Amino acid sequence: MFTGLVETIGKVVEITPIDSGIQFTIETEWENPDLKIGDSIAINGACMTVTEFSDLGNLFKFYASFKSLELTNLSRLGEGFAVNLERAMSLGQRFGGHLVQGHVDGMAKVISRKQIEAEVEEFWVEIPEELQRYFVKKGSVTLDGISLTVVDVKDGNIQLILIPETMEKTNAGSWKKDQRLNVEVDVLAKYIENYLSQRSGN
């Protein structure tokens, strides 16, 4: 389980195709490095497993299967690309953001980006049609592993207002028009939908 509060940005330093997918090597710096083999870590919001790591924790590897590559933007990564990183929650830590599972539901597309105030930027992002029913104004969404608030919803697109803190500490600063982002809808919306459908028998 994650919170959508990105801890640090990593850089893809090596991509190695293997029989069943791709192995990625990521370089980063943790404030308190404690990686272990088998740890869960969100890479652009997709929950992956650490398969190797350096003693200092500044290099680690993970494997993405062909199915994961199909469902996420990990297949679009190249060497030098920046990725958002968050280690799994630990019991007793403060809980910010919102409940994030690391289960990517699909890929959204950046429609527009513009500066609306000093260092404050507005994004409009197109949501896949099959996921649009889960979005409401002031609701939560996870994009590339970042917990964000939906400002407005219009014609299948959502509006986001990103502050300097978000732009500096995540890869959102590099988002461009037509870029694909991993999207995970609010899990509470899924539970509500399932509950209501069971009650109605539909």
UniProtKB/TrEMBL annotation:
EC annotation from Swiss-Prot or TrEMBL: 2.5.1.9
Gene Ontology process terms (BP): riboflavin biosynthetic process
Record key words, sorted: Repeat, Riboflavin biosynthesis, Transferase
UniProt xrefs under InterPro entries: ATP_synth_asu-like_sf, Lumazine-bd, Lumazine-bd_dom, Riboflavin_synthase-like_b-brl
Pfam families named among the record's database cross-references: Lum_binding (PF00677)
Keyword Kinase: no
Start and stop residues of the Lumazine-binding repeats: 1-98, 99-196
Highest taxon of the lineage: Bacteria
Matches recorded under CDD domains: Riboflavin_synthase_like
Recorded catalytic activity of this chain's protein: 2 6,7-dimethyl-8-(1-D-ribityl)lumazine + H(+) = 5-amino-6-(D-ribitylamino)uracil + riboflavin
Span of domain Lumazine-binding: 1-98, 99-196
Class of this enzyme: transferase
Example GO molecular function: riboflavin synthase activity
Pathway: Cofactor biosynthesis; riboflavin biosynthesis; riboflavin from 2-hydroxy-3-oxobutyl phosphate and 5-amino-6-(D-ribitylamino)uracil: step 2/2
Role of this protein: Catalyzes the dismutation of two molecules of 6,7-dimethyl-8-ribityllumazine, resulting in the formation of riboflavin and 5-amino-6-(D-ribitylamino)uracil.
Subunit note: Homotrimer.
Name recorded for this polypeptide: Riboflavin synthase
Record organism: Leptospira wolbachii serovar Codice str. CDC
Encoding gene (name): ribE
